[in-house]
Give the backbone structure.
Amino acid sequence: MARILNLETATTNCSVSISEDNEIVSLKENNAMNYSHSEQLHVFIKEALNEASLSFLDLDAVAVSKGPGSYTGLRIGVSAAKGLCFSLDLPLISVPTLQSMASQIKALDGEIVIPVLDARRMEVYSCVFNANYEVVRETRAEIIDESSFDKFLAGSKVHLVGSGAEKCIEVLNHPNMNFDTSIIPSAKEMAQLSFKKFQEGLFEDVAYFEPYYLKDFVLQTKKKG
């Protein structure tokens, strides 16, 4: 049995789960708008372990949401995951944030799932998956306009899900488009993906692994006044 600690901090949702193989045995999360991951993450890790009646020594791997997403959130999650892997000598697994979002939708054969995370202005982070959650189009940062995702709307129902769907609703108007703004990245959906990578031995180099920021971090400073 593989016991995996799953960490999701790519967005406002600070989420921790413990999975045994691909089943969730404990889950702690809080979707707070103030990004309090630095205060909550390690507390949630301990609470999730206690709820599952496990200790750090019972873990077989640590999985972390790799991005894209919040620069600060990703740094906090990856730093925690790498620290645990170093100290406990555990393998590190990375799970694409958008793929775990897509897996929350039960798509029918032929349908398309496009998870979108809100970026600045009219920009989103997006990736396109088929009904088997296989990548049809790679992850990218893109500006939404009336022609976005046209090629996928031609003959298929398209599920556009996530925080970025909110800014798409007013721009994209197509009968094949289904919007769901309630989908957020969560450690709950990481279990099957992290377990599959564990079985296949797809581990990251703990020393050199970095989050998938997708865009360079821009430090915004207040104008003097």
User: Anything to note?
Assistant: The first strand starts at residue 3 and ends at 8. The chain has a mean pLDDT of 92.
